[in-house]
Amino acid sequence: MSAPNGPAGFNLRKIAVPAFGPSLLFGIGEGAILPVIALSARSLGATVATAALIVTLIGIGSLLSNIPASVITARYGERLAIVVAAGISLVAMLMCVVAPTIWVFAAGIFLIGTASAVFNLARQSYLTEAVPVHFRARALSTLGGVMRIGIFLGPFAGALAIHLLGLSGSYWVGAGAVLLAGAVAWTLPDLVHPTHARAGAAPAPTIRSIVTSHGRLFLTVGIGILLVSAVRASRQAVLPLWAEHLGLNATVTSLIYGLSGAVDMLVFYPAGKVMDRKGRTWVAVPSMLLMAIALLLMPLSTGAVSLLLVALLIGFGNGIGSGMIMTLGADYSPSPGRAQFLGIWRFLSDIGSSGGPGLLSGITALASLAVGISATGLLGVAAAAVLWYWISRTPTTARLR
Fold this sequence. Notes:
Blueprint: H1 13-33, H2 37-43, H3 48-55, H4 57-76, H5 78-98, H6 102-130, H7 136-165, H8 168-185, H9 194-198, H10 207-213, H11 215-218, H12 221-245, H13 250-266, H14 268-278, H15 281-297, H16 304-320, H17 324-332, H18 338-366, H19 369-391, H20 395-398
Helix pairs in contact: 1-6, 1-7, 1-8, 2-3, 4-5, 4-6, 4-18, 5-6, 5-8, 6-18, 7-8, 7-13, 7-14, 7-17, 12-13, 12-16, 12-18, 12-19, 13-16, 15-16, 15-19, 18-19
């Protein structure tokens, strides 16, 4: 399907603003605060080590909240879950503004991660239900791409607010963005779940029943998703670390990082179209192979130009994989039981996001940064191999080719 119009008169334009608008705004809010969390913690008296730990609380909050988020979404519906997530994030942003102690600030950061888990799961579940399967990858790739655009724009909005208001300005930008996100999400049309009525005679799906019935899937494709997330999370750390190793100054490093991010944002929709028309493996496997090759080449770079070329390749590889994890989760998720399945799926993804940088850190400490980066590249090769082998052997995605 090449146009926004799909089966049964579906038109993505009718829900584009309420479906994608909150993601853009939520991304702006998160992007505005990410660069200053450590600085805010330091201003409240935290040590460098404590400040670094507080930065990780967003990821920890998301990881621990994925399963509860699935229960909330299943019980109250996607639209209300998105609005509630925006409300939680708003309160958390304001906590960060007025925090009198490091503990209150840390609680606010953790709640932002919690809200992110509820928001991300509900928006994915909503589009999975609302969009016809033959347009699914484009819709979810756009969803991922729009969030990345927001995170890219957020620091610029935050920088302007910091200039006017100090460090708290970034959190005021975040608060305003998530407030608008909740208001836009409120206009989403409620979904009708026809399967729910038929399921009345049978017990409602639970986390345990979903794990039992889809255990093999979680141990095969799910492991691939975990590896993908590990590589993606690690790439954000290796680029500035290797730039520092080469002796590049902060301005050059930021420029290289920004250009990589710009390439990342430009290719999400064409990649979604390829996934819809050709199949998921046509994007999932090349995405990871390109990132793996770039990471394996990074230790061979010797200056700004060679590092820039590697960074652009990483950005392209990551960009074409935009929405890949969400699309595969949507493909495999059952209905009823979709929210619970996606909660477990996102839990696996967040384990990878948390474990990847940890593995990089451990290998770097034991050997060297070059060895750590190379090991991350090998994880990318492993992710490509797992996805290539298992995606093609599942009936759900086979019929989407």
